[in-house]
Amino acid sequence: MANNEIIHDVIIVGAGLAGTWAAMVAAREGVNNVGVLSKIHPLRSHSGAAQGGIAASLGNTRPVAGTGPRGPLEQVPPGDTPVDDW
């Protein structure tokens, strides 16, 4: 019987955005043998199948009137600020 042993320096479970990013960073940092395990083809991952897309603020659009913060009371304070202070 043949030896079907596969050896990797790093094994990443999941081929969605986070797994793919982790594999890329590992390779960039000099890891020579990265294994990415996935139950399904990477293009069918939950990241790729998300119907809502990926939201990112690119800062390349004009603000729509009435949608931005109008003052400090609309901005979320830090978690350690008592509610009475704002």
Would you write up a description of this structure?
The chain is of the alpha+beta class and 86 residues long. The protein has a domain at 7-45. 19% of the residues lie in helices and 9% in strands. A two-stranded parallel sheet has the order 1-2. Helix 1 (17-28) links the parallel strand 1 and strand 2. The longest helix has 12 residues, at 17-28. It is elongated. The protein starts with 9 loop residues before the first strand and ends in a 37-residue tail after the last helix. The model has no long low-confidence stretch (mean pLDDT 75).
Q: What is the topological layout?
A:
Layout: E1 10-13, H1 17-28, E2 34-37, H2 46-49
Largest sheet: number of strands, sense, barrel closure: 2 strands, parallel
Share in helix: 10-25%
- Which overall shape is indicated by the principal axes computed on the Cα atoms? elongated
Report the mean per-residue pLDDT as an integer.
Answer: 75
Radius of gyration: 22 Å
How many E-type strands?
2
DSSP summary: helix tally = 2
From N to C, what is the helix and strand string? EHEH
**Alpha-carbon distance between the two ends:** 72 Å
Unreliable stretches covering 5 or more consecutive residues: none
Alpha-beta content class:
alpha+beta
